[in-house]
Design goal:
The structure is a single chain. By secondary structure, the protein is mostly helical. A two-stranded antiparallel sheet has the order 1-2. Strand 1 and strand 2 form a beta hairpin. The chain is elongated and about 65 Å long.
Length: 150
C-alpha cells in the first residue's frame, strides 16, 4: 500500500511555482510596460547595491535578472522609452552604455517596493510577530540560496 498522494496545493514546490506565477505577472496588458519597468529599475538598484564595478550596463541587468542579454536589452529599451532609465556612454568602453535611474525611475522604485511590501503584509496579516520574523528570515534565506544555485 503506497503513501496517500497529496493534492498539489499541499505540496511546497508546486505551491511555490503557482505563487511565483501569480506574483510575477502584470495584472493586464496596459500595465505590462510599467511591470517591465519595475523589473528593470529593481535590477538597476540591485546591481548598484551589490557593487557592480560602478557601471551598470545591459549585461549587468541581464546577469542580475538571469535572462538572456537580448531579453534584458528589450526590457531596458522599454524602460528608457518609458522614462524610467537613462543611458550614458560608458567611460571605460565606448561600445557600451551605462544605465541610471531617472527621477521617474526612482519614484517607480519607491512605489513598487511599497506595493510589494503591502502585498506581503496583507498575506501575513494575522500572523504573530514571531511567526513573521521567522518566515521573513527563512524566505530571504531560501530565495538567496535558490538564486545562488541557479
Amino acid at each position: 500500500m503506497g503513501r496517500p498522494v497529496k493534492p498539489l496545493d499541499a505540496l511546497p514546490g508546486p505551491t511555490l511555482f503557482r505563487a511565483v506565477r501569480l506574483l510575477g505577472r502584470a495584472p493586464d496588458q496596459r500595465s505590462q510596460r510599467r511591470f517591465s519597468g519595475i523589473l528593470v529599475v529593481q535590477a538597476v538598484r540591485g546591481c548598484r547595491e551589490r557593487g557592480d564595478s560602478g557601471e551598470i550596463t545591459v549585461r549587468s541587468v541581464a546577469d542580475y535578472m538571469r535572462v538572456a542579454p537580448s531579453t534584458a536589452s528589450r526590457l531596458v529599451s522599454d524602460a528608457v522609452d518609458a522614462g524610467y532609465v537613462e543611458t550614458t556612454p560608458s567611460p571605460s568602453d565606448r561600445r557600451s552604455t551605462t544605465l541610471r535611474l531617472t527621477d521617474a525611475g526612482r519614484q517607480l522604485m519607491r512605489s513598487s517596493v511599497a506595493y510589494q511590501t503591502k502585498v506581503y503584509e496583507q498575506a501575513t496579516d494575522g500572523w504573530s510577530s514571531e511567526d513573521k520574523q521567522v518566515f521573513e528570515r527563512l524566505l530571504v534565506e531560501f530565495c538567496n540560496r535558490l538564486l545562488s544555485e541557479l
